[in-house]
Amino acid sequence: MKKFWYILMVLILTVLPCFGFSADNVQATKGFEKVQVSKFISLSEGKTAQDFGAETVLIVHYHRPDGKYEPWNLWIWPSEPVSKEGNRYLFEAEDDFGKYAIITFDEKHTELGFIVRTDNWDKDISVDRFVTIPESGVAEIWVLSGIENYYVDPSTVDLSPRVLAAIMDSFDEVQLELTVPFDTKDWQGKVNFYMMDETTPTEIPVSDVYKTDPTDVSLTTKITVKLQQPIKPENVDKLYKVEIEDYVFDGYVILRNVLDDEVFHYYGDDLGVTYTQTQSTFKVWSPVSSQANLLLFEKYNDEKPYKTIPMKKEINGLWQVTVPEDLKGKYYMYEFVSYGETRRTIDIYSTALAVNSIKSAIVDLKDTDPVGWDKDTRPQFSNPEDAIIYEIHVKDFTIDESSGIPKEYQGKYLGLTVEDSQSPTGVKTGLAHLKELGVTHVHIMPFQDVGSLDETKFDEQYGWGYDPYVYNVPEGIYSTNPYDPVVRINEVKQMVQSLHKNGIRVIMDVVYNHTYQVGKSSPFDQTVPYFYYRTDGTGKYTNGSGCGNEIATERFMVRKYIVDSVKYWVTEYHVDGYRFDLLGLFDKETVKAISQELHAILPEIVLYGEPWTGGGPILFGKGDQKGLEIAVFNDDIRDAIRGSVFDEKVKGFGLGATGQKTKIERGIVGSIEYNSRIKSWAQDPQETINYVSNHDNHTLWDKNALALGVKPWQQKIDEKTLETLKSSQKFSNAMVLTMQGVPFLHGGVDFARTKQGNHNPYNVLDPNVIDWNRKSEFYDVFEYYQGMIKLRKEHPAFRMTDAAAIKKHLEFIELSREYTKTVAYILKDNANKDSWKNIVVIYNGEPEKTVSIELPKGNWNVVVDKNTAGTEVLRVVKNKVEIEPLSICVLYQ
């Protein structure tokens, strides 16, 4: 009966009138040729854009075998001659092919990009596609769901059942995804597997065909082909085809996890170019390539290489060649032949790049060292809990005129080397500000090579940097000369050197979870197609990052790339730590390897990341960090203090919200298991990054303003509301700075930074610019933060290094039930060898009420209250103390 329905389905698909088929134009498949061709009607034949009342027209026809068009639409943008923002367009009409849309533009464009997607950004295929616009101004295409290549001639459109993907994750099995169900009980004589030697196929016998999912029915679109004999490791660079009767397969079998076999592991630390004055050795890993050439160029913008040198391959997929001459100042690319295509790309292990990453550059890294680099000394630092981290962006921090930085350095790496800058009102800015504030570590948002920025357009372009192209070269847009590969490297080293000289360690914000693009626009995909990224059963890139792709960290050579890269920055650039974007997408073994390798080089390195993803399953979440000497962002304490980041109107404890006391107490103890009620996901206090704001979402000031229903960036607010905002600005991070764990501050939070209410200006400069005039305006806020930092640095009781010490020395003060928004605790018996015997800390979350708290016996020295913070005694109290609304009080004896 199932076979009957299968035959009926095939007949329906081949004769259904809505698809324009007839018995005369349908043929059976034979060999590897497309044979089912149907004629569909063109809407643009003989027409120009003017016939549509436009300058540019794109007509997109879309066909889905399942007939389910409901959630799908188009995202289209001009890409040439000038790239512009895209827009959403609907399929508003239908024809014999399926749905179609006619998109018109009032401007002349020579190329348009398009994505078939849903409003949730699920994509029909992962790569961006582009359409060249002819002289007529009208382009018309026919797009098949799941197929990358589209048709431009309706007479060649083929709607036969298709093999969407054929993937090998082992040497003797091929997983197939089909557009039309296949009966796995009736496969004999219908399924064949071939190894292609140029154009001659060699059949490899099939032993079985079965449903990929054992719980599936036998008539299914997901099948696995079992080979009688596994393919040999040395033959992974061959082309393989699957032939299924009545199905079209345009591509080749993709070798995916089979490349993760140990036979292909390379353990050397010399991938990329190793330069000396007498020779340069180039090594690159690409097992699926049947040929690899080194292309050498005299100039970065040369189109043709002056020399093409064949590379030699080893069994593990390593290609290498040594050139016995001095190549300093030359440029290079690789040329690979894989999956029937020739691909040119830069080296994913590049340590220097031409402008806009168009070629890899050959430099002597010794030439990039600034004067005294060999004597660069990291500031004294012992335990992760001693860190006070401050997040900045290279451009934001010094681009404004108010920074007082010399014009030529504003917004650039060298802007962070200026030691005595000040604003027109006389407050310290830039590096001088960091030093004055007293933070131990500066967290610099991504400055590895960025894919979305044109390095020649510093004034016009801006980005947070979370879209990397390759990883071992600094982004050129922040250098004073992006055309010289040496300059950016030298200037990043100068930046690190200057920060170290001024007592500040450097943490790199890194994005090893996804890249800017995939396919032809990704050097990783051009080197080993489909290997560096996670893909599903259809071969489509999965999108756990929310940015279009996600790196397959679990594969050995991908893990090796990441570990090699982070080690390189520590040794070559002297960075002191890493913040990992979307760490939740990393497998645990990779996180463990990163931590072990880096701690072996730099025992006091600071490592932390986001324990979430951009929408995909969490592979490394809160709790997975236990015992790995890596921390994760504590969104529990963030939301408890500031309120929801997803609802701007929801207040947190920092503005007097109720129901947050237990969460606050969990934050106070560093998120360890303190008792049966106060317990969370950390094993050690170094594993929690306590924070209330960072570059994501609203700034603390903006969030609190919106929660109070005001917009001070648009209108003047009354004095009472202003004072409430200032109080919460101080109170919120005073809690963070007195909690066990690692405190993290958003750059500018210490002087009420605003982004004018914009919660996600990732590619817009103006809201992100640090306005140093605000430091003058909110200097009392700055001094308060400065005092709280001084308190934490001078008193190790706030920086206990293990759970046992916290349980021994931290005790909560029991308060009566009326104190619904007050938390009090004592750090007792010279906690962590503190010079103060006992320290009492009280948080009053009441928005308008002063509270009175009874104190343990004896005299108590107040060092922090609502208006002043530090280590100097403000007054002495006995028996009880009063704490003003939205404030903290710290006392010692």
Question: Could you please describe the fold and organization of this structure?
Answer:
- With about 900 residues, the chain is α+β, with helices and mostly antiparallel strands.
- The protein contains 14 helices and 39 strands.
- The strands form 8 sheets. Strands 26-27-28-29-30-31-32-33 form an 8-stranded parallel barrel. A 6-stranded antiparallel beta sheet has the order 34-35-36-39-37-38. A 5-stranded mixed beta sheet has the order 13-14-10-9-16.
- Helix 6 (about 555-570) packs parallel to helix 7.
- The termini are far apart.
- Residues about 1-35 have low confidence and may be disordered.
Radius of gyration: 31 Å
- Overall helicity: 10-25%
- The global form is globular
Structural class computed from helices and strand pairing: alpha+beta
What is the makeup of the main sheet? 8 strands, parallel, barrel
Number of strands: 39
Number of DSSP helical runs: 14
- What's the overall average pLDDT, rounded? 94
Q: Estimate the strand proportion.
A: 15-25%
Q: Termini distance? A: 87 Å
Instruction: For the largest sheet, list the strands in their spatial order.
Output: 26-27-28-29-30-31-32-33
Low-confidence stretches: 1-36
Give a brief description.
This protein is α+β, with helices and mostly antiparallel strands. The protein is built from 14 helices and 39 strands. β27, α4 and β28 form a beta-alpha-beta unit.
